[in-house]
Amino acid sequence: MLKAHELREIIKLVEESSSIGKFEFEHESTRLVITKKEGAAQPILKSEGSAETTKEVKEVPEVPVQATPPAATTENTQTIVSPMVGTFYSAPEPGAAPFVQVGQQVQEDTIVCVLEAMKLFNEIEAGVKGTIVEVLVKDGQMVEYGQPLFKVGMKDV
Predict the structure, then answer these.
(1) Do 148 and 88 form a contact (C-beta atoms < 8 A)?
(2) Global pTM?
């Protein structure tokens, strides 16, 4: 499944291109069709067994391809911040154990949560080594770009 930043990049490339009028991409059960209409790209996402949907593309702030590096808060902690706007989920599915808990050691590539944006679920990596000190948001909460999600202690590293 495409991640939000990948979808934004594809839409941007189609919008900026003077020679691409229609773009189609299909992988597993997901199909993406983008066609230009009066200067704006119109994504059409279709999954196997689902109805085709069209949504207006709105100006979306640029999201870096890699997760936003954690912002330092003190000498001993760093904050993992949201790289995008979306809905925060602490577990891969309802009823499952959370990706991380307070007191748990994390590495740079440890998945700490999932953010849902435009029906796409984006796995967020810690980006830092340390111990989860605090979870700053609740499951199902909307988060903003740059909003602190977790505090990570650095003294045990």
Answers:
(1) no
(2) 0.53
Fold adopted by 71-153: OB fold (Dihydrolipoamide Acetyltransferase, E2P) (2.40.50)
Give, in order, the Cα–Cα distances in Å from 125 to each of 59, 113, 132: 26, 7, 13
pLDDT, tens only, 40-56 = 444 455 444 444 444 44
| Sign for the pseudo-dihedral over CA of 58, 13, 26, 93 | negative
147 burial level (CB within 10 Å; 0-12, 13-18, 19+): middle
Distance, in Å, from the CA atom of 90 to the CA atom of 96, rounded to the nearest integer, reads: 9
For the chain, where do the domains classified as CATH 2.40.50.100 start and end? 71-153
The answer to whether 108 and 129 are in contact (CB under 8 A) is yes
What distance lies between CA 8 and its chain's CA centroid? 11
CA distances, 3 to each of 25, 121, 125, 132, 134 (Å): 14, 7, 14, 25, 27
